[in-house]
Amino acid sequence: MDQSNAIWIKDPLTILADGAERGVVVQNGKIVELVPAGHLPTTVNTKIYEARDHAVLPGLINTHHHFFQTLTRALPAALDRELFSWLQALYPIWARVTPEALNLAVTVAMSELLLSGCTTTTDHHYLFPTGIEDAVDIEVAVAKRLGLRVLLTRGSMNRSQRDGGLPPDSVVQDEDTILADSERVVTKFHERGEDAMVQIALAPCSPFSVTTSLMRATAVLADRLDVRMHTHLGETEDENRYCVQIYGCRPLDYLEQCGWLNARTWLAHGVHFNAQEIRRLGRAKTSISHCSCSNQLLASGCCPICDMEDAGVAIGLGVDGSASNDCSNLMQEVRSAFLLQRARYGVGRVSHKDALRWATKGSAACVGRPELGEISVGKAADLAFFKLDELRFSGHGDPLAALVLCGAHRADRVMVGGNWVVIDGAIPGLDVSDLVRRHSAAARTMQGQ
Ligand SMILES: [Zn+2]
User: Fold this and answer.
1) Taking the chain, what is the end-to-end CA distance rounded to the nearest angstrom?
2) Does residue 323 sit in the same domain as residue 417?
């Protein structure tokens, strides 16, 4: 067999894997060999990449985001608000998004993610005002251009203020339009199998912006098309009150009534589930995207993720939208989740390795991609390489702990499916200055400045 396209990632400074002290061999998009201390690869004729200056991690996986929100970071009108009033301040501005602005927003968000060591991301795009019907098509094109692996969701909102929901009429669509377009984008873009680079899931936005009819119809459609489902749930106490008032039950009961409490579903947030609800999530194999920065910024609360893991719930990390973080840096999210959860559970329960596990293997399980998120034979060659030569690392001992404790924020190299997509801290072919200039101009226009 021709092994000439194999690369030996040789002698890393440290690597998040057992029995790979001398590195790994990647070939045809997969990890084909771990090289233990004192050994050479058995794979012959490999190219060599010297990694002695790099801490090597499985590529980080982002399980929740809204790329379009990069256009409204730190917006004065939305500062210092909790979720419901924050959304009401932002909806009218988001309604002005154009295809050109979305293209720039997606490019910015994906670039930020890649440069932070992310190799797979989801996006929850639920904003389809007139003129932006091809939002998912735009996102797929940017992902392919940048080489990032994606699980994009066809989001939706159809309960406006007129029907007792939170969003204005200008940002909702009708159920038939949503379902037809959901089927269109799954048919057009969804890839199956372990090597899939583009996948699609269906994602009604939240109990306060979507009708029960659409929730139920989406579950039926996702089952028929065999794709995953995603939504926000358990984010705030306001949401609990809304569900009790409108639906006569708590959010998780409502989810179950809609046919969503199953292994196809991953939920963003899950901050306010009680002990009995956490056990039900575990039994149903419904997973949770923990968005610690967002939960802190909007003062939503602290998701009890160790209790959830004890109950068998898969936990991943998500940066959430760039208007509630306000950045898309997944490595910084690892540090944030580590600090928040350690404050809740104590030093004996939460370590830096737990936080790294949530962002890799945990996130892979959360979004139903077990072939990702781990450095072992047969897994995808999705890897993040960090140097520890910045001022912030000077004097460090344990390099893996230093990544989290000293605040690593920028990958030096990133590999997705065996291809280099970040080299020397930059995305090949991307003019960042020009992107920032054009994205900032689009944001100012949208904000009416
Ligand atoms: Zn969100």
Assistant:
1) 61
2) no
This prediction's pTM: 0.98
Query: Are the beta carbons of 372 and 364 closer than 8 angstroms?
Result: yes
| Same domain for 74 and 51 | no
Alpha helices in 72-174 (DSSP H): 83-94, 99-115, 135-146
Range of 351's domain? 60-366
Residues 48 and 80 both lie in one domain: no
For ligand 1, the distance from its centroid to the CA atom of residue 124, given in whole angstroms, is: 7
Q: Is the residue at 293 inside a domain?
A: yes
pLDDT in tens, 233-255: 999 999 999 999 999 999 999 99
Residue 250 belongs to domain with CATH number: 3.20.20.140
**How far is the centre of ligand 1, averaged over its atoms, from the C-alpha of 415 (Å)?**
27
- Structural domains in the chain (count): 2
Local confidence band at 4 (pLDDT 50, 70, 90 cut-offs): low
348 alpha carbon to ligand 1 midpoint, in Å? 30
Distance 419 CA to ligand 1 centre (A): 30
pLDDT band at 176 (very low <50, low <70, confident <90, very high): very high
Q: What is the DSSP letter of 380?
A: B
**Do residues 216 and 326 share a domain?**
yes
